[in-house]
Amino acid sequence: LSVFLALATPALATPASADDGKALFAAKGCVACHGEAGARPIPGSPNLAGQNAVYLLRQMDEIVSGVRSSPPLKPMKPVIDKTTPDERKALAGWLAAQKPAESATGGDKAKMEKGAELFDENGCIGCHGADGLKPLADYPILAGQRKDYLMTQIKAIRDEVRSTRRVRMMTANVRKLNEAQVEQLAEFISNVKRK
């Protein structure tokens, strides 16, 4: 019996693969908020398709550990709490491989121009790359993200509602932004075309 258990245990403990990400996304009900393949979210939820896998994994791990616990995450926490580290890795890998959502179109040109200036003036390029397209290894791709989600997150960082160690480094960059500037910045980023 002990030989059988020793042989069977590795099969039972097989880590989830990126191929399992699609099944996990459906089984966990992620589609309800983030849309099919993470590209058609409901208002207030982020586009996840094509996002940086390392960043996605870190966010899920921070939600599980309670490090990231701002109010909009309350519905997500019980779902993510029931995943294993390997399942989170599979979800992140699968989402990163999906086709990104289309960027916004037809934005307010004046707001986008001012937002582009704010993006440069506030040092966003340092971590998120030019136009939010090529971030550092474990930072999010901002280009083409939903405007409403961007505005909520910029305000949460500015007002220190969202306050993880890494996010606190950004607080100084956005602390002085008023409501109009937050909207301008989000208008610009959401309209940058993902390549």
What is this entry, summarized?
The chain has 195 residues and is mostly helical. The chain has 11 helices and no strands.
What does this molecule look like?
The protein has 11 helices and no strands. It is mainly alpha-helical and 195 residues long. Helix 2 packs across helix 6 (85-96), helix 4 packs antiparallel against helix 6 and helix 7 (109-121) packs across helix 11 (179-191). The longest helix has 13 residues, at 53-65. The N and C termini lie far apart (56 Å).
In terms of topology, how is this protein built?
Layout: H1 2-12, H2 19-27, H3 31-34, H4 53-65, H5 77-81, H6 85-96, H7 109-121, H8 125-128, H9 147-158, H10 165-174, H11 179-191
Helix pairs in contact: 2-6, 4-6, 7-11, 9-10, 9-11
Secondary-structure-based class equals mainly alpha
How many E-type strands? 0
The low-confidence runs, each spanning 5 or more residues with pLDDT under 50, are 1-13
SS element count, helices: 11
Radius of gyration: 18 Å
Overall body shape: globular
Q: How much helical structure, as a percent, in the residues? A: 40-55%
How far is it from the N-terminal to the C-terminal residue, by CA? Answer: 56 Å
Beta-strand content estimate: under 5%
Mean pLDDT: 89
Largest beta-sheet characterization: none
Note the run of SSEs as H and E.
HHHHHHHHHHH
